[in-house]
Specification:
By secondary structure, the protein is an alpha+beta fold. Mean pLDDT is about 75; it is low at about 10-25 and about 130-165. The protein has helices at about 1-25, 35-45, 50-60, 75-80, 85-90, 105-115, 115-125, 240-245, 330-335, and strands at about 155-160, 160, 180-185, 190-200, 215-220, 225-230, 235, 250-255, 255-265, 265-275, 280-285, 290, 300-305, 310-315, 325, 340-345, 350-355. Among the domains are: about 35-130, Serine Threonine Protein Phosphatase 5, Tetratricopeptide repeat, CATH 1.25.40.20; about 175-200 and about 210-235, Roll (SH3 type barrels), CATH 2.30.30; about 255-335, no CATH class. The protein has an eight-stranded antiparallel β-barrel with strand order 8-11-12-13-14-15-16-17. A five-stranded antiparallel sheet has the order 6-5-4-3-7, with no helix packed on it. It contains nine helices and 17 strands.
Length: about 350
């Protein structure tokens, strides 16, 4: 009799407890490992993907997960990238602002270092503390690749002058060396990183990791994130005149490219074909632009500096949207086709390729 009663109690307890556990960890992330959920939270916090973060937390993701070996938490990643809504979400779900990364910095201190002013004000209102923050110091360059002085802010210098002496010229490939702290561009925007290796000027890689005119860059914001970045997507940390002046001039827009692999006997090769540009953009140095589409319709207005990094924003362009123009010149565009290439992006729209001959100086 007693045994039956105990069995009934255990069964009833399971019925009551199981739904609670399922609600605590539900959704597409419920069966993922804690490490996978933690790393995804840090990644999406850096990218500002609040929707996905809600799903991860719903699936049991730990908002205080720390990446190894950097000690970076989702809150630190969001704070560094100035994603205020993500920071607020994490705090509301138990993120601890007093945690420190492997360098001893809290989320507030990281926000201060990266100029994330909205996040700084929010965390200060919460009472988060921060010790005085020293300026970021780039890692020392290896002896085999010694170079001229680098300012503490990471702006590349040689002989006491910025690497890009002309206000119009992008820093040429090789301007940065291993150990330099730089900004680099990804599809998610501008990030801070450390140059680990410099590629080659030739198409053959030889003993280096990256191909022609690429830098091997390690992200300073996401752990274990290293990639080969085209030279046209790497700049010094400090804002410089070429960040906007480079884009002044005439650009041809709308070119598309197709790549097809061909096989004949034992030979395999790739053929590239291009459909010519159908639109035109003129960026004037006085802060205005004129954009003519393939139907002859003209949009014109003002442009402003991209606050996130090198580039300009065309205010109220086609479809009455703001379009961001970003450099993406690479070894193929420069060496084979003899052009500078860029890309226009706008929220919810397909991007638009831009090009101009290298000889078409501003």
């Amino acid at each position: 009799m007693l045994r039956s009663f105990l069995a009934a109690c255990i069964a009833a307890s399971l019925v009551l407890l199981c739904p609670l556990n399922l609600r605590a960890q539900s959704g597409p992330w419920a069966h993922s490992s804690p490490q996978l959920k933690g790393e995804a939270l840090v990644r999406d916090a850096d990218g500002g993907d609040l929707r996905e973060m809600r799903l991860i937390v719903q699936g049991g993701g730990d908002v205080n997960w720390q990446l190894s070996p950097t000690g970076l938490t989702p809150l630190m990643a969001a704070a560094s990238a100035d994603h205020l809504e993500v920071v607020q979400f994490l705090i509301e779900h138990g993120a601890d602002p007093s945690m420190r990364d492997s360098n001893g910095f809290t989320a507030l201190e990281r926000a201060q270092r990266y100029g994330a002013n909205d996040v700084v004000r929010y965390l200060e209102r919460l009472g988060a503390s921060a010790e005085p923050v020293p300026p970021p110091v780039p890692a020392p360059a290896p002896a085999a690749q010694a170079r001229g002085p680098v300012r503490a802010t990471g702006a590349a210098m040689r002989n006491g002058r910025p690497i890009s002496a002309s206000p119009h010229d992008w820093p040429a490939f090789g301007s940065f060396r291993a150990g330099d702290t730089v900004r680099f561009h990804l599809s998610t925007g501008w990030r801070r990183g450390l140059v680990r290796e410099v590629g080659t000027d030739a198409a053959r890689r030889g003993s280096v990791t990256c191909g022609a005119k690429k830098y091997l860059v390690e992200s300073l914001e996401i752990s274990n994130a290293t990639d080969c970045i085209d030279w046209g997507s790497v700049v010094a940390l400090d804002r410089q005149p070429y960040w906007t002046a480079f884009f002044a001039g005439d650009w041809a827009l709308g070119e598309t490219m197709a790549a097809n692999s061909r096989v004949a006997g034992g030979d395999v090769w790739t053929e590239y074909s291009h459909m010519g540009a159908t639109e035109a953009l003129r960026v004037n140095a006085n802060g205005t632009y004129v954009w003519k589409n393939r139907r002859g319709v003209v949009a014109q207005g003002q442009w402003a500096a991209d606050p996130d990094g090198p580039g300009i924003i065309l205010r109220r362009g086609p479809r009455r949207l703001d379009w961001t123009l970003t450099n993406e010149t690479n070894a193929i565009a420069e060496g084979i086709r003899g052009i500078e290439s860029a890309r226009l992006t706008a929220r919810g729209q397909m991007s638009v390729a831009a090009k101009r001959p290298i000889t078409a100086r501003r």
